[in-house]
């Protein structure tokens, strides 16, 4: 199938009470692992590409890899810009072939975030590309984003509802207590915020920082209206564990296929488990 916008599966996810995973890509092996997981689980999926990953892999390579993977699969696949920082970056990605974008205006004052997000929605929707907006500040470290615990700010539910009514984004990321990266303790998720916002808007809620969140917390969040969950760190941890072990135990190993192949398998296993947990397995 060609790449599709998130609207090919998010409305169904919200209606049927499951969530679709956004799995961030960092190199070829991530793309291969994620698509294989999706095919085996018969699950819709979202390839997430951050600006940092795009710089590392090259914009055209990201699009070419995602397109090739999607075309040989019979499950719906979206290629989504993660935390797009400006209108210009968003337009560049859409022109290159992304089927979905996030515009992260959460660091702007509320009204300015609405104004800028609306501009992105108007342009993206004109060419069939879905849009995710963000309100509140998600803590932790991801590429260029580094938000300390003190600076992380939960989304105000009334503002989130107004934000959606004005922008009509297809997916609504709100800060509800999760953070990018692994957690030291357990995240304190504000289910009341998820529930209030999800019940008042048509779009599903997006949970960023999906790595390391206990299974029961994920299930509860999904049951309350989370329809998209982002995962990156857990796949990185799974990959590097295998690479480290193999290289530590085999000092003569030099062929990258020998350690990246098993690492790819480890990512695939992690992604498959997430698809089952999120309830998206069998939904394609
Ligand atoms: P984790 O790295 O914590 O899984 O978060 C990923 C994410 O939210 C991408 O936007």
Automatic annotation (TrEMBL):
<feature type="binding site">
    <location>
        <position position="180"/>
    </location>
    <ligand>
        <name>Zn(2+) 1</name>
    </ligand>
</feature>
<dbReference type="InterPro" id="IPR011289">
    <property type="entry name" value="Fruc_bis_ald_class-2"/>
</dbReference>
<feature type="binding site">
    <location>
        <begin position="230"/>
        <end position="233"/>
    </location>
    <ligand>
        <name>dihydroxyacetone phosphate</name>
    </ligand>
</feature>
<feature type="binding site">
    <location>
        <begin position="209"/>
        <end position="211"/>
    </location>
    <ligand>
        <name>dihydroxyacetone phosphate</name>
    </ligand>
</feature>
<feature type="binding site">
    <location>
        <position position="181"/>
    </location>
    <ligand>
        <name>dihydroxyacetone phosphate</name>
    </ligand>
</feature>
<feature type="binding site">
    <location>
        <position position="208"/>
    </location>
    <ligand>
        <name>Zn(2+) 1</name>
    </ligand>
</feature>
<dbReference type="Pfam" id="PF01116">
    <property type="entry name" value="F_bP_aldolase"/>
</dbReference>
<keyword id="KW-0862">Zinc</keyword>
<feature type="binding site">
    <location>
        <position position="134"/>
    </location>
    <ligand>
        <name>Zn(2+) 2</name>
    </ligand>
</feature>
<dbReference type="InterPro" id="IPR050246">
    <property type="entry name" value="Class_II_FBP_aldolase"/>
</dbReference>
<keyword id="KW-0479">Metal-binding</keyword>
<feature type="binding site">
    <location>
        <position position="104"/>
    </location>
    <ligand>
        <name>Zn(2+) 2</name>
    </ligand>
</feature>
<feature type="binding site">
    <location>
        <position position="83"/>
    </location>
    <ligand>
        <name>Zn(2+) 1</name>
    </ligand>
</feature>
<dbReference type="InterPro" id="IPR013785">
    <property type="entry name" value="Aldolase_TIM"/>
</dbReference>
<dbReference type="GO" id="GO:0008270">
    <property type="term" value="F:zinc ion binding"/>
</dbReference>
<dbReference type="GO" id="GO:0004332">
    <property type="term" value="F:fructose-bisphosphate aldolase activity"/>
</dbReference>
<feature type="active site" description="Proton donor">
    <location>
        <position position="82"/>
    </location>
</feature>
<dbReference type="InterPro" id="IPR000771">
    <property type="entry name" value="FBA_II"/>
</dbReference>
<protein>
    <submittedName>
        <fullName>Class II fructose-1,6-bisphosphate aldolase</fullName>
    </submittedName>
</protein>
<dbReference type="GO" id="GO:0006096">
    <property type="term" value="P:glycolytic process"/>
</dbReference>
<dbReference type="GO" id="GO:0030388">
    <property type="term" value="P:fructose 1,6-bisphosphate metabolic process"/>
</dbReference>
<keyword id="KW-0456">Lyase</keyword>
């Amino acid at each position: 199938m060609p790449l599709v916008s998130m609207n090919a599966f998010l409305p169904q996810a919200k209606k049927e009470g499951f969530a679709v995973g956004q799995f961030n890509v960092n190199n070829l092996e991530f793309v291969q692992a994620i698509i294989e997981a999706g095919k085996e689980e018969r699950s819709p999926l979202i390839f997430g590409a951050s600006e940092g990953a795009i710089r590392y892999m090259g914009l055209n390579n990201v699009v070419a890899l995602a397109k090739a993977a999607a075309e040989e699969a019979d499950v719906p696949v979206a290629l989504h810009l993660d935390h797009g920082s400006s209108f210009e970056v968003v337009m560049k990605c859409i022109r290159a072939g992304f089927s979905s974008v996030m515009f992260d205006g959460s660091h702007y004052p509320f009204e300015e975030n609405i104004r800028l997000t609306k501009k992105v929605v108007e342009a993206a929707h004109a060419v069939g590309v879905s849009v995710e907006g963000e309100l509140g500040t998600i803590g932790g470290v991801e590429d260029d984003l580094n938000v300390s615990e003190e600076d992380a700010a939960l989304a105000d539910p009334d503002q989130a509802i107004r934000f959606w009514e004005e922008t009509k984004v297809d997916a609504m990321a709100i800060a509800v207590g999760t953070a990018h990266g692994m957690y030291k303790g357990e995240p304190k998720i504000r289910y009341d915020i998820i529930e209030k916002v999800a019940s008042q808007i048509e779009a599903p809620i997006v949970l960023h920082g999906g790595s390391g969140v206990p299974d029961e917390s994920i299930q509860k969040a999904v049951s309350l209206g989370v329809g998209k969950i982002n995962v990156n760190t857990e796949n990185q941890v799974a990959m590097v564990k295998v690479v480290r072990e193999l290289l530590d135990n085999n000092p003569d190993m030099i062929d990258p296929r020998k350690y990246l192949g098993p690492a790819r398998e480890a990512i695939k296993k992690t992604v498959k488990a997430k698809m089952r947990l999120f309830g998206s397995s069998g939904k394609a």
